Amino acid sequence: MLWVSRCGLSDLDGIGVLGQLEELYASFNDISDMGALVGHDRLQILDLEGNGVSSLVDCRQLATCVTLSDLTLEACPIAGIPLYRRSIYKVLPRIECLDGVNFSDDDKEPLDPAVWKSVQAAASRLEIESGSGAQSAEAECSQRLDQHK
Questions:
Q1: Could you tell me the residue range of the domain that residue 52 belongs to?
Q2: Residue 122 — pLDDT band, cuts 50, 70, 90?
């Protein structure tokens, strides 16, 4: 277990030497790239609350952490994307708990391809836009979801 919360970290470089790491608590830093965690096959709990994670591509890298079951991304920019929980489950289906809440059956519902494409576009825009842009992206995605019901 490693606790490095509120340490002013901007990256996780060097964490590869901790191959036996099972729990990482790195909340409230400035971490945006999770590439250093690729291949940490013993990592079970990852808390990155309040960091700069803003991309589904970054999150997808965690798929190589085959025992990861508990992920916290609350208060990260990525948490503002439309259909956040369903999107994280889609890219990381092994995760059981996101932001302290187990995935529900609704979270596990497959996303229609057109809606998924819209979510990905909204997530990409969210990386560079502020709150008002995120709201318009969410509205666009919700409209597409309604069309496919």
A1: 2-110
A2: confident
Helices (H), 1-147: 56-60, 84-91, 113-126, 131-147
Residue 121, pLDDT score: 87
Q: Does 93 map to a domain? A: yes
Comparing C-alpha atoms, which of 135, 138, 106, 108 is closest to residue 146? 138
**What CA–CA distance (Å, rounded) separates 118 from 43?**
31
In a domain, 31, yes or no: yes
> pLDDT by residue (tens digit) across 70-84?
999 999 999 999 899
Counting the structural domains of the chain, the total is 1
Whether residue 121 is contained in a domain is answered as no
Residue 118 lies in a domain: no
Q: Is the pLDDT of residue 5 over 90?
A: yes
CATH code, domain carrying 89: 3.80.10.10
Query: What are the tokens at 6?
Result: 């509120």
Tens-place pLDDT, residues 99-108 = 999 999 999 9
DSSP state, residue 110: P
User: How far is residue 33's CA from residue 144's CA, in Å, rounded to a whole number?
Assistant: 30
